[in-house]
Write a structure and sequence with these properties.
Layout: H1 2-33, H2 35-54, E1 87-91, E2 109-115, H3 116-122, E3 125-135, E4 140-146, E5 157-158, E6 161-164, H4 171-183, E7 197-205, E8 213-222, E9 237-244, H5 245-253, H6 264-268
Parallel strand pairs: 3-8
Antiparallel strand pairs: 1-2, 3-4, 3-6, 4-5, 4-9, 7-8
Length: about 270
């Protein structure tokens, strides 16, 4: 029994060291080389994680549907584009005397909650999740086209899946739920959803751009673009497409109005 306990503790210690090293590496690479280097690192992390958890299985498939981008085969889809009365936790604004540390810092709560419509009206800071589906071997990234019924940036191409974190909610759980609701991807493993690779938290002040002021928790998820079918939630999403990562980054930096804009800090990460 003693030998088992010692062995377990050593295994846990090695895992913690590995996770800490991975976090430092992501931090260093993203500061030096931007999103493409992060995606390359992310690919290695996903392959290692998948090998450990699923043996010889290299990639997971998306939620099954008979053809791409089906609208009527998603049991998780919402019945409306958004709920104006959902409750958000109001966060403190980013510091004005220093740069927010996206890789290590987390937002601070004010202790107050408000309904979504009031938060957006008053330009309060709150929280959201972004999940980017990436096919690193083909250098592609999945984009969704937002429904015309959305209250921010309707009809524009955007993150693969995204959503607000409700008061008392968990970031990873929210990310997994949004993937299911918007794209029909429901094969992640609860409760930790280890397939999601956390990258950074970006304070994005976009209320005056037609969006909102949000701390955005950014995750990456590896998928094969040629094998991945989507079952979109049509109240929130009009379409999905795969796009070359370099072409997408150029569109963002050129402020192409077909795409939801991103703050410079986000793009530079």
């Amino acid at each position: 029994l003693l030998q088992f306990v010692v062995t377990s503790l050593l295994d846990a210690w090695r895992m913690i060291r590995s996770l800490r090293y991975t976090g430092r590496t992501i931090h260093t690479i993203t500061r030096r080389k931007g999103i493409c280097s992060l995606l390359n690192l992310h690919n290695r992390i996903i392959m290692n994680t998948t090998d450990q958890k699923q043996g010889s299985t290299k990639q997971q498939q998306c939620s099954t549907s008979s053809s791409s981008n089906q609208e009527n085969n998603n049991p998780h889809a919402l019945k409306s584009a958004q709920d104006a009365n959902e409750i958000f936790e109001v966060m403190e604004p980013p510091p004005i005397n220093r740069i927010f540390d996206m890789y290590n810092e987390r937002p601070t709560s004010t202790g107050r909650t408000k309904i979504r419509s009031d938060v957006h009206r008053d330009k309060d800071w709150h929280r959201s999740v972004h999940v980017w589906l990436v096919d690193t071997s083909k250098e592609r990234i999945a984009l969704q086209k937002r429904s015309l019924a959305k209250d921010t940036f309707p009809g524009r191409w955007d993150i693969s899946a995204a959503g607000h974190i409700e008061a008392g909610g968990n970031s990873r759980e929210t990310a997994a739920r949004e993937l299911a609701e918007e794209l029909g991807i429901d094969d992640l493993q609860p409760p930790s959803y280890v397939e999601l690779v956390f990258a950074f938290t970006c304070p994005a002040e976009q209320a005056d751009w037609g969006g909102c002021n949000c701390y955005e928790d950014v995750y990456f998820l590896e998928r094969d673009s040629e094998e991945c079918d989507f079952a979109i939630g049509s109240e929130e999403v009009m379409d999905v497409k795969w796009m070359n990562i370099g072409d997408f980054e150029r569109a963002l930096r050129d402020r192409d109005e077909a795409y939801v804009p991103r703050v410079d800090m986000y793009m530079d990460a």
